[in-house]
Records
---
Amino acid sequence: MSTDDFFKVAENQFKVALPFVIYRTPYTNTIKGIFQENDLVYNSQHLEESGFVFSPFNSENNTVLLPLEHSEILTLENPEIVSRVTTPNNKKDTFTTEAKTAHINLVSKALEAIKKDTFKKVVLSRKETVSLTETNPIVLFQRLLANYSSAFVYCWYHPKIGLWLGATPETLLNVTGNRFTTMSLAGTQSFTEQPVWKGKETEEQQLVTDFIIDSLQPHVESLSVGNTETLRAGHLLHLRTKISGILKTKLSTIVKALHPTPAVCGLPKEITKQFILNHENYKREFYTGFLGELNIKEDKKRNPNRRNVENNAYHTIKSITRLYVNLRCMQLTDTKAHLYVGGGITKDSNPEHEFQETVTKAETMKKVIF
Ligand SMILES: C=C(O[C@@H]1C=C(C(=O)O)C=C[C@H]1O)C(=O)O
């Protein structure tokens, strides 16, 4: 299938108002599309189905599923993207002074609660609305692809729910058979060749790592924690620690234990979740929720480096789940884009700097809009 044909299918599905998702996993050059054949809203209760899930921040709300059994699946290998798109890349501040004041007040409120020991860390966010000149989501998706090779890039649409696009650097959970990998991601600075991380960022990221380890411990047979490294996400850098091991419980238990992690919610989890739901000035909806492939059967070849050449002929079918945290994302409504941005607040946070961090994060999406 040609690149043109693939995107024509997506544009047509959008035109006739049927649900779909098109996406590319980090560092790969394959775009997949799941095109639902009807406009029903399917939900996943226990993450046992096969398909693509789109789940909100508030886990009391439904997880939407595009089921494989009611969809057509298309795969596009080595698409010609970079030669097809131009990225406008004009920086532009679009926040209002009211929005700035509201965010600074919100961060100050959190700092008071941290001082009183109500919680240790909370992630606070806001929504910024901008007008689009390019309103075709498929074009915006291609611009995201061309710019963010290390991200999970997607465009998700359901006529009864809405249209979301994003390029997220954060994996919630990857599972192949019973092997899993996840990551602790936190701390932000603008890209530089030789980054230096301050105590605020390393401590904030360590809180996330410790939470993930503690939450997974009862559900795993083995667990290993990698070194903490710098991850580039477009013009930003974050601290990341990879965590992997073998699961001994079902997927829904693990996802429930992890989501929402303190990378997007806070510590302790329930108290900060309530603080967010009560005090943020808007509804997060699917921002900081999770999304991705659920229980997809893939044909895994044996490791070609193995000595026993005869065995190389064997394939095994494995069930694969790849879930990402919905960050650096936007929701499109007609000619507007709603950008969602936030950051972690700890005792050392400065409200003005925290606001600036959300402005910098919004540039990830603005790069493909203006
Ligand atoms: C909340 C966001 O990002 C999260 C918060 C970070 C931070 O506080 O430094 C860094 C990466 C993400 O875990 C966002 O991008 O909106």
---
Amino acid sequence: MTRRKIPVTVLTGFLGAGKTTLLNRLLKHPAMTGTAVLINEFGEVGLDHLLVERLDGDTVLLQAGCICCTVRGDLVRALGDLAQRAEAGQEIRRVVIETTGLADPAPILQTLISHPLMLTAYALDGVVTLVDAVAGDATLDTEAEAVKQAAMADRLVLTKTDLATREAAAALEGRLRILNPVAPVLRAMAGDVAPEALLGAGPFSTEGRIPAVAAWLAAEETEAAAHAHRHADGIEAFALVFDDPLPWDGLATWLEMLTVTRGDSLLRVKGLLNIAGEARPVVVHGVQRSFHPPARLAGWPLDHDRRSRIVFVTRNLPRGIVEDGLNAFLDAARQTGILKRG
Ligand SMILES: Nc1nc2c(ncn2[C@@H]2O[C@H](COP(=O)(O)OP(=O)(O)OP(=O)(O)O)[C@@H](O)[C@H]2O)c(=O)[nH]1
């Protein structure tokens, strides 16, 4: 008996575009039962595996680093492991790969199109690319990876249209249609999109796409390409960890100030926080110049200590400056608290 090939969907989009938000909504849908999720994050400490709420199934965290640099190793190994488990009888009906926002999709696609494992056990079901309606236009101007993500999509999803003007969203959609004439452009508010609109979008084809797509894929076929990926100069990812509960006032003021003054250098901020006086963890998100409203999680993730972690992806903004600035604000906030109590 030949086994059914497991469909694989690639979920991509630049930093903070809304991938995890959409994935969380999607996974709650009955059509997504039996979905295994592979998550890859850029940087020394990822948070997404803690922020993806699973009801069932597998979530595999690919080694920290960049999926486009580790793709020929970790990704293939993780897919091989899942294929073996499916062979042994575990229900794995679908795989979704959430890439880091900085991922170049070309090496991922090249691997998924041509690796022997993919040809025997899997079927590429489509590339879904999310584009932030607020930050997307500026991102396409400066980030080569974002352009490739959009051009290689089988489905484009415009997110955060609630935060953008109608004109800005329409202009961005026009730009996306030129960059990618074949992918339908959908809109999703807070990740709300029907699975049918995203699934079954493959197999990948270069037909009708801008000529650069075929060239990007061809460039990945060479052995040298495996070692040639270099992210844009000056990009740094780091995590700050705090043992004691943090004062919300000092932290919020500092984060808002940082997004206003250094928004161009601040590609992404993501924090899982233990806030003084709060029983539940608080999640904060900054995307370039936007600071999204904080959210409380239902509880602390199991097997996770209660230290606060804030992950930063910056360009030309060194860790030391961020760390010193935050510590100064926190000290000031603590002292004000002491004075108030006194
Ligand atoms: N207003 C609004 N906010 C959204 C929407 N979609 C996502 N967000 C917010 O955008 C922020 C980033 O969303 P994530 O889902 O973490 O983005 P991501 O693409 O997974 O981020 P990385 O993994 O760091 O690249 C969060 O605060 C979300 O709540 C939307 O349609 N509207």
---
Amino acid sequence: MLAVERLSHWFVNGGEETPVLHNIHFTVEKGEIIALLGSSGSGKSTLLNLMAGLMKPSKGSILINGHPIEKMTENQLAEFRRTQIGFIFQAYELIPHLTVRENVELPLVFQGIKAKLRKEKALFLLAKVGIGEKSELFPSQLSGGQQQRVSIARSLITEPAIVFADEPTGNLDTKTEKEIIDLIIELNSTLSITFVIVTHELEVAKRTRRVIQLRDGFLVEDASWAGEPE
Ligand SMILES: Nc1ncnc2c1ncn2[C@@H]1O[C@H](COP(=O)(O)OP(=O)(O)OP(=O)(O)O)[C@@H](O)[C@H]1O
């Protein structure tokens, strides 16, 4: 499903190279949920941007469903991101003047899907994430946790191959954080959606069955366990 193969990345500024990722290698199977854990500056955002096709790696390869994304043209990449990848952001990134339902429908508007089908899918997903009754409200009328639920529904509406959640609970209190991670874990198990949760919080990472840890751009741990996560 996702294969990161011998990936290294460095930034070049004014002729000077800053190495950021070193020989990162791992795979994620369909239906898995993993945490990508690392402290600030460890290279998580860079790796996420590479996996989402927002930048090309200096060395190595990233395959999603067998497609090496660094070999795609800009147009292929844009289409790929629109259809195969879902994003959940720390700050929700909802559009304030659209209703909750319209926000969730938006990725399908860009795909030219008809209004009736868009609405059906959005309402189904809003019910799935537990805020079916909020569909006609605006984001500002919702709590942070509810807004993150909207953003989760939006990330799923194109039925992507993989969803990247970038610090999805970074703006939430501990109780709401737990509820949102519970929801992501439930969606992973009931809908078999593949999730990569990027976090600097060990508490969040420990909730998944597999943790990949980055330190100073190196993959220092790839640990899975079969029992119940804590
Ligand atoms: N465009 C750039 N040019 C040079 N160095 C960069 C660039 N972008 C990031 N870096 C460096 O790469 C390293 C990793 O940064 P990155 O943002 O990937 O880390 P992170 O783990 O996501 O941190 P945070 O949790 O704070 O977002 C840092 O040392 C950063 O200074």
---
Amino acid sequence: MAKSWSPDSWRGFPIKQQPQWPDEAELDRALKQIHSYPPLVFAGEARSLQAGLGQVAAGNAFLLQAGDCAESFEEFSADNIREKLRVILQMAIVLTYSMGVPVMKVGRLAGQFAKPRSADFEKIGDEEIPSFRGHIVNAAGATAAARVPSPERLVQAYHQSSATLNLVRAFTKGGFAALDRVHAWNQEFVASSPAGERYEQLANEIDRALRFMRATGMDTESNSNLSTVDIFTSHEALLLSYEEALTRKDSTTGGWYDCSAHMLWIGERTRELDGAHVEFLRGVGNPIGCKVGPTASADEVLELCEAINPARIPGRLTLISRMGAGKVEDGLRPLLRAVRDAGHPVVWACDPMHGNTFTSAGGRKTRDFESIISEIEGFVRAHRAENTWPGGIHVELTGDDVTECVGGGDELRDADLDTRYETVCDPRLNGRQSIELAFRTADLIRNGDA
Ligand SMILES: O=C[C@H](O)[C@H](O)COP(=O)(O)O
Ligand SMILES: C=C(OP(=O)(O)O)C(=O)O
Ligand SMILES: [Mn+2]
């Protein structure tokens, strides 16, 4: 790997999963426009997140990274963003209380548009058309015309990210995220369904803790520690020309930051050590994630640690394992050992979604809630066995009442999937399944019954 780095040095490396833009001049115009726009986040914010993740790496905090598989240009509304935030906040309270440590909240939002695909083409009847690669690239419609990449979409993605982030900042600082209020939503979940009843005891404990705080004189409504939260943004840094256009030199430190989001991650399909994605992300100062699937060897993971975090900065690198429920325990243990023995201060997070996808009898891409829980259990067991910290979870969810994953307290079945299947890419947990997942994760971490 070349020693010197610049925002465009990735261009000299082999690259995967990029669209075939039909018109280079049009692409250049769009990128120049984005380059001239303001950054979406500030370097100092990325550094605060990195410091928080450093606490996660040390076992003193937990990471909750969650949001859509792919944000949509069509499902873009205040309601949609608010409901997603609501669920993330509800999950975070349950996890914070159960683990007794701060929870760093990172959304897969305000920029999570570009999708890597297993196949470049999709068969529709007798015709092969290019795959859908996320609304930042093409349209989802099942025609060849819809799938033609359009650079204008890069500009639209920037504007949608900007508006989303604006609302996230407003909601999280303006009272929406107040602890009392979020706890009341959790109580509503517990009271309103048989699925929720299981978690009554934990919700009651949180309620008692809040009453205790008020009794000691703490004003839980106006104390800013309890009424505002930080939610950071993240997405897969897949389209490197877009990421390069938003990469700016930080005036306070002189370092380069990718100002499209606070945290960026490298996907399972683009994590080659000598590839363009590792080259680009090793040079920006943001905290970086990297997916680690079942084929990753301990040597490969160590080389990734060295490439991305040679200075061994705690919180700089988050390794997100996505092995599949049946593989995680045995697959992860050698990796945990190798990284621990090499002294790399990484965050280990569990993505229990991407290794557990299957096609339902009715032809829908889906995931079973129990396999998702089972991968988290295997992840926690592997960490207990190696004496390392199961630092976080990384999940695909929405606040809406969709029917995309089977199982959960409402016992969604194959036959229910057609009722409200709205994702533009992978199946997401719905609001109730997400909150249930937080309660189940909290239970297994508290009671050690993984
Ligand atoms: O979100 C992840 C990937 O883009 C997605 O899982 C790939 O799905 P595919 O196998 O249908 O291409
Ligand atoms: C593409 C994704 O995951 P992976 O790279 O792990 O397949 C994703 O997180 O949506
Ligand atoms: Mn996905």
